[in-house]
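Chain A, query sequence.
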Amino acid sequence: MVTILIFLPFIGFLINGLLGKFLPKSIVGIIGTGTVLGSFILAFMCFNQLSSLTEGSIATDLYTFLQVGGLHIKFAFTFDKLSGMMALIITGIGTLIHLYSMGYMHDDEGYYKFFAYLNLFVFNMLVLVLGSNFIMLFFGWEGVGLCSYLLIGFWYKNVNFGKAARKAFVMNRIGDLGLLLGLFLIYQNFHSFDYKEVFAQIGLGQVSAFTLNSIGLLLFVGAMGKSAQIPLYTWLPDAMAGPTPVSALIHAATMVTAGIYLVVRSQVIFDQAEIAREVIMWVGLATSLFAAFIGLKQNDIKKVLAYSTVSQLGLMFVALGCGAYTAAMFHLTTHAFFKALLFLGSGSVIHGMHHEQDIRQMGGLKSKMPITYFTFLIGTLAISGFPLLSGFFSKDEILIHAFEHNKIVWGLSLFSAMITGIYMFRMFFLTFHGEYRNHHHAFEKVHESPITMTLPLMILAVLSVFGGLLNLPHFIAGHSISGALAHYLAPIYSFPEKEVELNATIEWILMGAAVAVFLIAFLYTRTKYLTKKSVPESDDQQEGLGKVLSNKFYVDEIYDAIFVKPIEKMGDFVDKWIDGFILKGFVDGFGKISQNASGLLSKIQNGNVEFYLIYMAVAVSILLAFNLF
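Chain A, predicted structure.
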């Protein structure tokens, strides 16, 4: 069943990729969506089956992929509670996004290729999370990187979109090098890539802290690339060049969470690698704050959500650095719900506005797009930490663990949460409230999206409201029904998770602080953008810190100056002098020598018989002279 679950999307990829050009678009959409829906149903069946198994996992060994000496690598999958949870998110959110794409991409000439790429991405993502060893994870890891490149650059006729895809590909390869070195170090020390064997050896306590920290840091470099952490985060905002369903599937709910999954899966390593965990925590905190500040001054609706994704991923890494693996997975899950909702909602707005993405050119869309408005409001409230919605509970759990681990980290994380509320409500009010500000597209032409696009929004809105029930805090729900996710994931941890030891009063105070920053963010943005009807300045009017934030701290310009331009100049030099002058001259020189030599020899072959007779006579004379003397 697990094998079918994984390969159903691959079958969809083959059918649409090979035959999609000859099939009606409706059939292409049904095949693409149906295969992922089938995987979701099978994942749900396997999920239910886990409760009746004593070992707590469903193992599937297909064949031995590589066997050299003592190295045995199996093409094998394991459906346990962690990989099962990820599989449900990937296939569940994936199904909704495929359904949404049937409406959003209907008029695109590359419709069948788009669904083929989406199916291939889901397949690789399932290989990544369901693989039973680090090599299978690496196969899926590289596969989703390839699909990301194809999907970001899907509209390849636009040169800038192609550059964005190339940027994502290159920056992910930098991170992948770190992951690969980490895998080499794992094999050097444990002579295996299998999760169970590696983790069992570590559990014996005979591995040095230096080795585990080295492995942990190298694995985290890989996670930096996929999950867009400083300094490898700049690819993700540029990845918004791809179609909106791509942004929702890859850059909100699935691919960018691969780094989180890697750390949680390798919990036994990171639990004993304190230095690596501290690095993870501080890098995650810095990323969360850095991206949040940039989000304050972005005016492209998808760019705001992109920097929000980077910021939220930073918070998940803060949780991992604090050893709160369940809190990270909890926020990963709720974030998949409300961020997919927000991205698809932004796509609905862009669709209704005929491809306008600048929030300064919107306003007053509430009356024209009621379903999109209401669902987008739920997503905005959830990510901003509105009490009792999913994001409130998952973010609060991270903050509680941060408070117990390090008060400074808690304060800065709380500040990041407040900034999140500010830029999210700024975007929401400018998009849906106030006066319509677009002079290029008549307000009467703005329209709600079709049911294939609004139905996924409504489903994700419900999940964004009730997702917090997955792991309610004990001081609210009581020990009998609280911490469901923590109890569920407990068997997959080699070492028991450290429990929060704060009393209920302090936890209520911390929750109150989270509510306070939400209210501050809401009231500030409501006053500025609703009461005072403020509209963001144009880019050339920005000054001081606002200009710095609008230009994203000039990080891209710095990278271009330090890395991109020198490499391009080096490439131009090699092209002109090494390749163009030396190598080309060398090759052309041989060609000219051969040509000149053949020109001389061709004079001998002139077609005159008398010359040939003279040559024969000379040759005979030489032979006779040679024999005589």
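The first helix runs from residue 2 to 19. The radius of gyration is 30 Å.
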